Amino acid sequence: MACVEVRQLTKEFRSPEKDPGLLGALKSLVHRRWKTTRAVDGISFDIQDGELVGFLGVNGAGKTTTLKMLSGLLYPTSGQALVLGHTPSKREASFQKQFSLVMGQRTQLWWEIPAQETFRLNQAIYGLSEAEYRRNLDELVALLELSECLSVPVKKLSLGQRMRAELAVALLHRPSLLLLDEPTLGLDVVMQKKVRGFIREYNKRSNSTILLTSHNMDDVVELCPRVIIIERGTLLYDGSLSDLVKKY
Fold first, then answer.
1. How far is CA 63 from CA 21, 139, 196, 230, in A?
2. Global model pTM greater than 0.90
């Protein structure tokens, strides 16, 4: 069984439309018009255990929407996704303990308190023993060079330090699947290199499956032997990066 199996996955969003100005607002109260947008349009692909795959496309192509459906945050309009043997939209506890979603523009760290407090919270959420917690945390702190950041309030960390702490808290429970949405967004060149090095090393050490979206092609070239490209919600390409470069 593949780690991720996607078959004709589709997601539509329905949003209200109105004419500009006060008159348009009043009309919309009486007769509301709706617009349907198909963000993901019948895509299909498989990802095997241990693969590190780049998920590419322009802004608005449907990448983040797909990741949210794979993680169970969004319910698909039609089609099916099977992730780690589970249907994500059911949000079963046994499934939620096996994956992590890291979004470069979002944080799961508590802003006012040190990152180590969020680590302790996740230890309780995922039911980690003290021995498991210490072993996993020590390894992540060493790999991500976080020893000096753990006791500092998150709001006082630099963007690079916070991103490394985000990765650490997401991987504390050793997920089998890691969904990364723009993990190097806003980082300087040196920090991008460190984050990429960590992702590569973590993939080798744990044999975890990683699906990564990025507009930074250095991320893709250094990390992803295989790429999936979507445009306006439809699948354009699924294959090796080297073949894509040769062809285009």
1. 34, 31, 20, 7
2. no
**pLDDT for the residue numbered 185:** 81
Contact 223, 53 (CB under 8 A): no
Closest to 11 measured CA to CA, from 55, 62, 87, 57: 62
Across the range 215-221, mean pLDDT stands at 88
Kind of pairing between the strands at 78-83 and 4-17? antiparallel
Percent of the chain with pLDDT over 70: 99
For residue range 28-77, what is the model confidence (pLDDT) as tens digits?
Answer: 888 888 889 999 999 999 999 999 999 999 988 999 999 999 999 999 99
Q: How far apart are CA 62 and CA 232, in angstroms?
A: 7
Q: Whole-angstrom Cα distance, residue 209 to residue 40? A: 22
Are the C-beta atoms of residues 214 and 184 closer than 8 Å to each other? yes
* pLDDT (tens digit per residue) in 178-191: 999 888 887 888 88
Q: At a CB cut-off of 8 Å and minimum separation 6, what does 175 contact?
A: 97, 98, 99, 100, 208
| 84, 95 Cβ separation under 8 angstroms | yes
**CA–CA distance, 70 with 67 (Å, rounded to integer):** 5
Question: Rounded CA gap, 212 and 42, in Å?
Answer: 20
Whole-number Å distance between alpha carbons of 91 and 215:
29
Structure tokens given for 18: 């109105």
